[in-house]
Design goal:
By secondary structure, the chain is of the alpha/beta class. It is 33% helix and 19% strand. The chain folds into 2 domains: 8-119 and 190-256, 3-Layer(aba) Sandwich (Rossmann fold); 124-183, no CATH class. It has a 7-stranded mixed beta sheet with strand order 1-3-2-4-5-8-9, with helices on both faces. A two-stranded antiparallel sheet has the order 6-7. Helix 2 (64-77) packs across helix 3 and helix 4 (124-131) packs antiparallel against helix 7.
């Protein structure tokens, strides 16, 4: 299995316990800097960009087994025999698959607003809307946001997606490869078949936004029988952005409790 070397940022004292935070689809390490800085007082926090995201290399294959292989390489390169894992959305699925396939490498597992199931939603409209932007005609980010609005009405989501739009040689271009995203999106919505794997019986915490419908407790227990489950009120899928204080407190309490 061909792996890529992940770009990453790190925060906190290297003598503290390691914590790896994994971002979601279309996101990158930058989306988690504020949370990482809060957690850095007690942990050595690593923020990798998963393949095809942020500053990490592009590769035509993107699914959970290969992303876990990348993450294992990352841990080996940084001499991390074990680490705490915190993953949101796609990153949560990467974290879960690592815990199920290499439980000895996971100290504690935190999964934010995602479950170990295959979802039916499609990213087609999002990818097609981004591909339709006339980049050669765009002179500023506000213009790009305005052009995207009819196709992606939610302002926060538009701004999140447009973090992938960068200025290079005085021209706007995509940091991500939208063709790869379009081809691989079904792998991201899915979750690998885990019927042949033993459940992960280590410490695990699932945190869901009360206004999100991504997580149902009954979808967790068969693979993560020891998992605790919490919801955050007045939060949806982007719970760490909408309720950062509550989210960070839940993460810290879980990680420091022996």
């Amino acid at each position: 299995m061909e792996t890529v070397k992940l770009a990453f940022e790190e925060f906190g004292n290297p003598d503290n316990r390691p914590l790896i935070i994994l971002h979601g689809f279309f996101a990158s390490s930058r989306n988690w800097r504020q949370i990482a800085q809060r957690l850095a007082a007690r942990f050595h926090v690593y923020l990798p960009d998963l393949r095809n995201h942020g500053a990490s290399p592009h590769h035509p294959l993107m699914d959970y087994p290969v992303m876990v292989a990348d993450l294992l390489r990352f841990m080996d390169d940084n001499s991390l025999a074990t680490a705490g894992l915190l993953g949101h959305s796609m990153g949560g699925k990467v974290a879960m698959w690592l815990a199920l396939t290499h439980p000895d490498r996971v100290n504690k597992l935190i999964v934010a607003d995602i479950a170990p199931v295959s979802y039916s939603h499609s990213f087609d409209n999002t990818v097609l809307a981004l591909k339709a932007l006339p980049l050669a005609e765009i002179t500023n980010r506000k213009q790009a946001e305005t052009l995207l609005a009819p196709h992606i009405p939610e302002l926060g989501y538009r701004q999140f997606l447009l973090q992938n739009l960068i200025l290079k040689d005085a021209k706007y271009c995509w940091r991500i490869d939208l063709d790869i995203f379009q081809r691989m999106a079904s792998n991201i919505a899915a979750f690998p078949n885990a019927d042949h794997l033993a459940p992960f019986t280590g410490h695990a915490l699932f945190i869901a936004g009360a206004d999100s419908d991504f997580v149902k407790p009954e979808n967790i227990k068969s693979l993560f029988p020891a998992a605790a489950y919490n919801t955050i009120a007045n939060a949806g899928h982007w719970l760490h952005v909408q309720q950062p204080d509550i989210f960070t407190a839940l993460v810290e309490d879980f990680l420091v409790f022996e």
